[in-house]
Amino acid sequence: MPMPCNINVCRGDGWGTSANQNCYKETEPIFQKGYWESETNQKITRVVESAIEELKSRGLEVQMLNITQLSEYRKDAHPSIYRKQRVAITEDQLLNPTSYADCAHWCLPGVPDAWNEILYAYIIQYSNIRRN
Predict the structure, then answer these.
(1) Number of helices and strands (H, E) in the chain?
(2) How far apart are CA 102 and CA 15, in angstroms?
(3) Locate the Trichome birefringence-like C-terminal domain: which residues (predicted)?
(4) CB neighbours of 49 closer than 8 A, spacing ≥ 6?
(5) Using CA atoms, how far apart are residues 76 and 27, in angstroms rounded to an integer?
(6) Is 10 exposed, middle or buried (CB count within 10 Å of its CB: 0-12, 13-18, 19+)?
(7) Contact 105, 79 (CB under 8 A)
(8) What is the pLDDT of residues 55-78, one digit of tens each?
(9) What is the pLDDT of residue 53?
(10) Residues 6 or more apart in contact with residue 84 via CB below 8 angstroms
(11) Which of 102, 116, 24 is closest to 70 using CA atoms?
(12) Which helix or strand (DSSP H or E) is residue 122 part of?
């Protein structure tokens, strides 16, 4: 059985629309620069960033690709309405993802593919810089 949808993740007020709005029929990502879901623990990110800064101060070159924040831009990529369910979902359920959905995960191919493309481009760019 899918994990219940986190009410704050699926509510439109998290991305600037009505609180009654949810991720159903969303077709665009969030374009607001620096956007964070309300449920994201930003303290963890700050700890990682602090550790990276510490390593940099010791002369190590370290960078982080924050896939958590990148994923949060993708309200259109919640997998719940796209995956096969054991029992057919009614239109009423689709309109209320909190009744059946797992809106805390992003499983459409586009999201992890984008992470991989960014990482690959970075590796290629970095290796070219190191050669020159």
Answers:
(1) 4, 0
(2) 18
(3) 13-121
(4) 64
(5) 5
(6) buried
(7) yes
(8) 999 999 888 888 878 878 887 776
(9) 94
(10) none
(11) 116
(12) helix 110-131
Show Cβ contacts of residue 19 under 8 Å, excluding neighbours closer than 6 positions: 11, 12, 13
pLDDT digits (tens, 9 = 90+) for 26-61: 788 888 888 887 777 889 889 999 999 999 999 998
Question: Residue 15 corresponds to which amino acid?
Answer: W
Is the model's pTM score more than 0.85? no
Distance of CA 33 to the CA centre of its chain: 14
pLDDT, one tens digit per residue, over 78-123 is 655 566 677 777 878 777 766 666 555 555 556 777 778 888 888 8
DSSP SS3 for 79: helix
Lookup: tokens for 43: 């303290």
Give CA–CA dist 110/115, Å, rounded: 9
E strand or H helix that includes residue 130: helix 110-131
